[in-house]
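SAMPLE LOG
Freezer: B-3
Tube label: C17
Construct: single chain, 230 aa
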Amino acid sequence: MFISEIFHSLQGEGELTGMPSVFVRTSGCNLRCNWCDTPYASWKPEGVELSVSEIVRQVESFPARHVVLTGGEPMVAKDMHELAGALREKGKHITIETAATIAPNGIACDLASLSPKLKNSAPDHRASDAWREKHEQLRWQPAVVREWLEQYPFQLKFVVARPADIEEMQLLLHDLHRPIPPEKILLMPEGTTSSVLRARDEWLVDICKQRGYRYCQRLHIALFGNTRGT
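STRUCTURE (predicted):
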């Protein structure tokens, strides 16, 4: 498998915020989000080839039961199902961070952290015309999202930059044709610095209070800044 990095830290986002976890970041992605904060695993994938057994060995070298499979897009990684199964055999709790553009196909997973992309993710001039078109076609796959929702414990995490993003998100959720408890919808301000995040907090906190959504902080930014291996 092509792996960007494996590290031990605290989960910075979602329902398990603060949980000591081992992160396995695969390299490679089928989208090109404009605001991607891990371009080394997405826009210009870099890393090393590791076997499933070597990845598991590295994961087990850390004192954590929780493992986060992330990327890039981990579901495009070769042997991802084998890796998840091997981690399950070791008794690990598995979170999969995915844009939910690829069906799960029975993968071992304890928490599906689904992050469908809104229009604010559209790639800028750095991406080719072909990538911009592919991104727009792939970023929202309601049938795939439904498969994840029906088969796994889940959280739906949306990156928002402006109030209009909330209205777009609600239209997408309507496409799922199933009720989603508001507390399972996590709104995360877009940004990679504490100052930008705080500026967006001002209106996002009010929206969460009014509509019952969960505010999703980025603990790792507050603790470590936008740095690799955190």
